[in-house]
Write a structure and sequence with these properties.
Elements lengths: L2 H9 L3 H8 L3 H8 L7 H11 L19
Length: about 70
């Protein structure tokens, strides 16, 4: 799972809500989360701002280990 998706889950957000909060098209959010599209820096900044993420922006696109199944 991508770091973006992990942050969304931690907040209880879905892609629609992230798209709304970041003023980004829902289809684009899905493509970014799925790794089918590499976002422009401005798009990545919008997602980070919406998520309250202040770390390295490139880290948002990295894969992270899935946590234990709930």
């Amino acid at each position: 799972m991508k770091r973006i998706e992990q942050l969304m889950r931690e907040r209880g957000w879905n892609r629609t809500y992230l798209a709304h909060r970041s003023e980004t098209d829902i289809a684009l959010v899905g493509k970014i989360v799925n790794g089918r599209v590499r976002p422009y820096p401005v798009q990545l900044e919008r997602l980070a701002l919406a998520l309250g993420y202040t770390g390295d922006l490139s880290a948002l696109l990295e894969e992270v280990e899935d946590g234990p199944a709930a």
